[in-house]
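call fold target=Sugar/nucleoside kinase (Ribokinase family)
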Amino acid sequence: MTVVTLGVHIVDVLARPVESIPAGQDTHVLEQIRVTAAGTAAGTAVGLAALGVPVASMGAVGDDELGDLLFMIMERRGVDVSGLVRKAGEQTAASILPIRPDGGRPSFHVPGANLTLSVADVARERVVGAKVVHLGGMDVTWGLHDPAFFALLQEARAAGTIVTMDLLSNLPDLVRGARSFLPYVDYLLPNEEQALAMSGAGDVEKAARTLLAEGPAAVLVTLGAQGSLVADASGTARVPALDVPVVDTTGCGDAYCAGFVAGLVDGLDVAGSARLGTALAARVAGGLGSDAGLGGARELRDGR
């Protein structure tokens, strides 16, 4: 595979528009309910496949019906799921997302099998053989906080593999814990809250520069409607968001990562890759779920 996404896999059940939770046994009739493959590894893999990038996803899922569903969805989207490990007795991670009319997304979440992912579940030859390895959610996959995994990343990078990393949570203790990965990462792609928590800085530009000093070649901080901030050795620059109607922001960060990684695969520079990520994220924001708007996404890559 050209790209391997490694980390968090989640089944999302999304409903919109949800203005309130019904009292008692009442029912609210909605416009739409969807089930998608999500999470910082699975969602990014689906985005990459939509862009026409050969991609395999690696992680841990349960041996339950939700796991069966996740396999089916990802395979239908064109992702190689042969590297996913089924964990006996574990539940596949899942979220229920009632999407508000303004696109806000509170969530109910079960971490499930993601918490059990370990170095023993990772196929060395896939990591070392990939052009890009995207680490998704190292803040919650504690079993990979292991010197053996860091050594594998070192080996892969020495062989020419590019390593990118995104985070899942906004919990300060978890995000700060993922800082230990920075010496083994080429490109870090947190959101604003994650960048501030990981760095301890008071503003996003200082946060990006602080994290940049710990190893990555570039830090790209997603800023929602304000676009993204790109920091590398040459300084910092802003990439504006596209002005599109927003239905649901679920998966926009994963789409940004997918577009960015696709840009790297195609030999684009950091700014060009960030623009491709921005364009894909805008498509996802216009529909419900992390795979919304991905039909025809290949044209973004072909027509950049």
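return ok
The longest helix spans residues 270-285. The mean pLDDT is 95.
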